[in-house]
User: Fold this.
Amino acid sequence: MRDAEFIIRSNREIARDTFEMVLSGDASDCARPGTFVNVHVDGLYLRRPISVCFADGEKMILIYKVVGKGTDKMAHMKEGESVMALTNLGNGFDLSKAGERPTLLGGGSGVAPMYGLAKALIEMGKTVRVAIGFRSEKDVYYKREFEEAGAEVLLYTEDGSIGEKGFATDHLPGDSTFLYACGPMPMLNAARKHIKTPAQYSFEARMACGFGACMGCSMEMKTGLKRVCKDGPVFDGEEILWP
Amino acid sequence: MAVTKVSLCGITLDNPVIPASGTFGYGREFSELYDLNILGSFSFKGTTLSPRSGNPLPRIAECAGGMLNAVGLQNPGVEKVIKEELPWIREHFKKPVMANVSGFSVSDYASVCELLDREDNIGWLEVNVSCPNVHGGGMSFGTTPEGAAEVTKAVKKVTKKPVIVKLSPNVTDIASIAKACEDAGADGISLINTLLGMRIDLKSRKPLLKNKTGGVSGGCIFPVAVRMVYQVYEAVKIPIVGMGGIETAEDVIEMMLSGATAVQVGAKNLVNPWACPEIINSLPEVMDKYGIHNLTDIIGGAHE
Assistant:
């Protein structure tokens, strides 16, 4: 973990209330897919945990949805401004479990970390399918980026305004070797009911520290209490106590 | 040369800075960031007789200049702390550590303290009397002089280590409670624990914390803490560990002027994990700025 300074290269709305912030700076320890950074926002006491969409050397992309005061302030940050963030937080996805044909499931803001994961798995020579679900066409982002990275994209919207109508979880391919999932809890819960393949799920929680000290985000797992920030945010399907 | 050493209940601290219980775990996460031995000491996570899983999520909320927590004393229980955490601490922290103890009955406190009394690397027992008494209608021990004194007496019977009673600020007259603890044999007082608060979510129109209420900490509570330490200093002769919103070396000096012999840094560790080493490193320079040669000389210096 470092408290690292980044410079905003761009910060733009790429879908309804959804922003893409491209940062430059030393992101060498942010590249593991499924990890997050805890972003300092001027004027607010707590940092804001944001999953890393993609990081490579000197560049990092964060995608976040404006849901409250912190993310709203982030959305108003300008190109050239500096951002401090605690880096390299959380365990990340275990890429060694992917097999040859992994499926990546993302819903809403949970689509973001799947991009870095997809790129890493494709680089490893895997055949990657990405099932992404949104409420409506206005909410969709990164479809083209996934395709350009070499992934097959299965797009779903709840109202059918683009892609297939319905939930991404209802149409998960049966021939996957592994499932990686990130999104709202009801989506993750639906996914595990629909798919028999082994899986890892990434959770979100309100956090204070983000590095395992405060016990603010502990969840009961089959293996005992786990901190979403430090022991997670990614958990194996078998260890999760589903609601 | 600035002298930062202070003596707390007969044990010398290299400096008065102690990370507060509940913001530092058992030190493991912070040991990856800096050498724990630069600290005066640290107060480990509140430990109870039985393991506790704590409160349901969300447990964290925010306010201007601070935060609320309703973690609910999640901890692995005293046996596991002795077996798994204390050996690790012994290896990584070569100074006496402060053991923070919580309980839900007088006998709970005594049992935990009796077990921890045998551990050589524990310097002080910091007894948190803010927990509800299950035999007293759920009222916190620390809200009455009698309740706080009863716990103090029971703990003093089972240990030779200095007992520091950690007081709740959610009371009408904190000085009388501190005095009752001193009369019951306490070797020190630490204060303040978090202030009881609540936030309400405008979208759901319900309390943000699942527990509804939570403890407020962070810079916003600093003036309240300074005032309460000042009041307790007037009421007791035993040393005081002052805490509540300390974020800088200047805050440390202010808290010591109000009457604290040592200080604890809490919530700040969570938003700046290097807060304690930064404060410790800047202490000599800030002491110099205010003409302080020896920190011990300024304890209670704000009093008539």
